[in-house]
Design brief:
Length: 189
């Protein structure tokens, strides 16, 4: 691991509901629909020098709803669509397990972020986690990062029906990834 001074902050993004429309279990690549504002938002983060890393739970694999190869197919489709617009993801981590597997990588546990921190010289305490579920907010807290809850995907319902019971609130609530990127870039300055 590099010295603490060599570490840099990163932006960790959830995939389904944050980058792309939430469709329940995305069990076929034809169901992947990236939000129209995502390419520009990620491009702005790229230009700022912040690594952009996807961290996504994909328990449909562990539940037998779709093969692990589909996760790779969809992630490749996502990176191709981003690249066509001049944006890029620096790394993608996913957890194929169910909560019953009690693995270290399933959000809100920090396994995916810990691995990314090691592999990409990331300072988690200066990083950001963006997602549409309370589990993403908990992940940020567990990793000592800042959390942004987007209202896309499950976000609006999470806020309306569950936020009053949350033991930790997001650092920022954004309409979507574009507004989240604006907030991150203001904090990063």
């Amino acid at each position: 691991m590099p010295e603490q001074s060599a570490l840099r902050p990163a932006v960790f993004l959830d995939r389904d509901g944050t980058i792309a429309e939430e469709v329940g279990y995305l069990n076929h690549a034809s169901r992947f629909r990236m939000f129209p504002f995502v390419v520009a938002a990620i491009h702005r983060l790229n230009e700022s020098g912040l690594p952009v890393i996807v961290a996504t739970n994909q328990s449909g694999v562990g539940r037998g709803y779709f093969p692990e190869s589909l996760v790779h197919t969809v992630n490749n489709l996502m990176t191709q669509q981003l690249a066509a617009g001049g944006a890029k993801i620096d790394a993608i981590y996913y957890c194929p397990h169910t909560s019953a597997d009690n693995c270290a990588c399933r959000k809100p546990k920090t396994g995916m972020l810990d691995r990314a921190a090691r592999e990409h010289a990331v300072d988690l305490q200066r990083s950001f986690v963006v997602g549409d579920r309370y589990g993403d907010v908990e992940l940020a807290r567990n990793a000592s990062a800042r959390s942004i809850l987007v209202r896309t995907g499950y976000g609006e319902g999470e806020l309306a029906w569950h936020a009053a019971k949350w033991t930790v609130q997001p650092d920022f609530v954004a309409e979507d990834l574009a507004q989240a990127a604006d907030w991150i870039l203001r904090q990063h300055k």
